[in-house]
């Protein structure tokens, strides 16, 4: 009888510039990187808001000035008067300052976990996890879904209770009290029955806010289900359970959201009012797709549509790259290695063959 065991994979040295890949097995350091990353995002949002406030000319439309954040604050009703015109910039300044202060706390937390805190989180506590622990990974997924659902409900509360939203149908900020709860109509947009622009065919604010109310409920319900349940064996076999696989799934989701945002900002004048973002766009093709305004102006809508398209494109490339890596492809060495086992809750797997 002979026994053959598959040799273990050779560890691949990860250079310092590879970022979070160096921290795959250091959960405490990875937490620090995530918190610091959040701090950088919030820092950019706050600093860019204050930069745009400092350059904003209230005598000109926002979309003519190359601004990308202030139009988004305006559509949420911030800084506008009763007549829908920009009344003051104090709200915008305060929002930017709050983001800068928040970024400082997030940065401090990131530095603590990256430099001072434990390299690995408590192996027995609530925050313990293993990449191949499907139950824990779906719990983390559930927590993220609940947070996304709460974010959707925050928009609903802003629209219905705390000041309202800018409604281009009436040209002013108002509370949205008559939400469209027709789930059949809302799902019709998802399945393409609402018009030629898919989800972006929605043409009234009550439907947008009502859809966010339903979306929040679905996300929170699904999140709670993932927190309390464990994936079945059939589900476990569908996925690769590794850190790189989760990165690929996340990048794929980001790419999808970026492309949906590109569609919305290009053609939808309800969620992105023309008063703040400029005329709706057309699509052209010159070796690559691009989005342009009919009058040829570089409006806020043009900047946002093209930026989201290219972000989605590169997110998609990252998704494909990391999905192949998770499946065993090693581009840097021009060869493949055995794929990560497609079963969860197992960190190693050996193949034995016996012959008499």
UniProtKB/TrEMBL annotation:
Membrane topology of this protein: Multi-pass membrane protein
Signal peptide annotation: none
Transmembrane segments: 31-50, 92-115, 140-159, 211-228, 248-272
Domain of life where this protein originates: Bacteria
InterPro entries recorded: PS_antenna-like, PS_II_antenna-like_sf
Protein name, per record: Chlorophyll a/b binding light-harvesting protein
Thylakoid listed as a keyword: yes
Species this protein is from: Limnothrix redekei LRLZ20PSL1
Annotated localization: Cellular thylakoid membrane
Cross-referenced Pfam families: PSII
Keyword entries, A-Z: Chlorophyll, Chromophore, Membrane, Photosynthesis, Thylakoid, Transmembrane, Transmembrane helix
